[in-house]
Amino acid sequence: MRRPVSAEVTDCVPDGEGSRLVSQSLVEHQGRLQAAIAKLRAARPGDVHDARVAARRLRALLTTYRPLFDERKAQRLRRGLRDFASGLSGPRDADVRRDLLLAVAARVLRLAVADTRCLRAALRRDCAESRLAMRELLGKEDWAESAGILGDRRTLAVLRLRPDVELAELLELVDQPWRDAGKRLAASPGSPTELHRLRLILKRCRYALESVSSLQPVRAGRVIDRLQSVQDSLGEYLDAVAARKWLKGNEAMLGRRLVRRLDDELQALEKKLKALTRRRLAGLVPAYVKWGMALRGLRTPEEATRDPA
């Protein structure tokens, strides 16, 4: 017997298996966002991170499954989620930068004690300023109202999810971000900007796959694990790039000697992480193809013979 689906996402109980899966995913991630918003006042690093991730996941699903919703309403909700996550980026970025630079500084031989103290003080100030800015944002009436709307289950009702979506149509939409990723991989991305865009697309791939993972959980789990490992090394690489930029922007305060020594260490780390990412990417698409082939019986004849990547 088909499990009931919340009528907060569609006007009626979906009769399509695809609609049911999308509805479940939306309700799940919107619930996570609601819980994360309730904890934001404490401004703990983990709470800020959870809120950003929940908003990104929900926005990614709205993007992947765009044809299934009222476009104008979904676009408005995507924009609200984007602004919400962007407003929380400062504290999270500052925390990551602090941890990375202190770890790098600990590896630099014969670093002067005065230089280490200067770096710690600058990073503490950076974290404090970012948290102050976020608390000011949280105190604004319009931002609080927007967060309240995003965390309200009734917000999903305006999307008007189509109730007749079957699995074949849903899987076609799940494949789309993988095609986008394949095109970017074929272009051999190398710059930080190109790799950042690739990471964003891979996140969409992962979130979309998670929403249908119950169809083939073992194979889906393997692909999701590979995606996670690629995202981790890519994220660490981009964190190193951002840390180098922050160092150069604060050279007058930190001193050229300290910045140069840390920059040398970060460049070596970037090179290592970029090589690790390329190795991890090699097995990603083949794993997804195997997952897609295992679902051939759920696709239309035309889709079953198409390479999902």
Would you list the SSEs in sequence order as H and E? HHHHHHHHHHHHH
Low-pLDDT segments, ≥5 res: 1-7
Query: How widely separated are the two ends?
Result: 34 Å
How does the overall form come out from the CA principal axes?
flat
CATH class descriptor name of the largest domain = Mainly Alpha
Query: Helical percent range?
Result: over 70%
Q: What number of domains?
A: 2
Number of strands: 0
In CATH, what is the homologous superfamily of the largest domain? CHAD domain
Fraction in beta strands: under 5%
Number of helices: 13
Give the secondary structure arrangement, pairings included.
Elements: H1 17-39, H2 45-64, H3 71-87, H4 89-107, H5 113-138, H6 141-150, H7 167-186, H8 192-211, H9 217-249, H10 251-254, H11 256-281, H12 284-294, H13 301-304
